[in-house]
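[09:14] KT: can someone run the structure on this one? pasting the chain below
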Amino acid sequence: MRRRSLPGSAGRRGAVAGALAGLLVLSTAACSDYGGDLSGANISGGGDGDTLVVSETAGVPSSFLAYGIQRGYFADEGIDLEVSPSSGGASVIPALLSGDIDVAGSNVVSALIAIGRRMPIEMVAAGTSTAERPENDFASLVVPEDSPITTAADLDGARIAVNSLQNINDVVVNSVLTEVGLTNDDVHFVEMPLPDIPAAIQRGDVDAGVLIEPFATIGRSQGLRVLASPYVNTRPGLQIGTYLMTSDKVSDDPELMAAFRAGVETTARSIAEDPDSFRDALPEISDLSPELAGQMNLPQWRGTTDRDSIETIHDVMREIGLTDADLDYDETVAD
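[09:31] RB: done, structure tokens below
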């Protein structure tokens, strides 16, 4: 499968320039789904020939793609996939629009904010999703073991550590709070990198924190107590991640998009059918230790975008003021 050059036009260049300018605001307001300095993303140039460059969040999300490469699923589709780890979220969208990368792995909230601001991007495949059952959620809202916070109602006035503000944390914590008559305005979100959150909770710098794997397992091993499973609480099987391409790429090279999506879907089926093989591969394709890889709750991958998840997240985003745009699902998600 050859990677085709896209025809340019003054109109398209103007649209992209305007979108990039808008992202100066977006990348501040809706930053990484896994934390990190947005200026430090390790992003290479777009691919040449058969190479497709994908920038995906460092850690388990990028390991998903690495596993698909290792198993030859993308090569089977005629794609030489190159994975460039990043801090994720909105940080990868400017690189996508400028042509430095071919596909951006981001989160649904960052994508919907960007699309709501009329940036020319579309969801082409699904990234990470969570489990159907709370005990298998790969995100946890945690407190110290001896904390007086024993139910969500006790979070009134609490300081909650999150890795990013105005993002997926706002959406999923809101789902926990609304069940007990609270809102996001009743708590104080404190932004800090994920690796720092467990220690901050133990020191009492914050009262609670939202952790994702592997940090959720690390936090539990250090004595933190799970108060809620926020992703599953928002919706069982909630899709968190997404892969994005520019609208030009989707329309001008639909075969390339379909080939990438097919590789993602095959990788997702493989892990669903044999998760132990993926766990066994993690120490080789990531920095995870065998012990941690064997203990943590894995995200789920389904490959195909889940409409119910997108609509659920967008509805909450509108309720809490992260977007005022309407959702045109058919325009947002590529066929």
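[09:33] KT: thanks! Confidence is low (pLDDT under 50) at residues 1-44.
[09:34] RB: yep, looked fine to me
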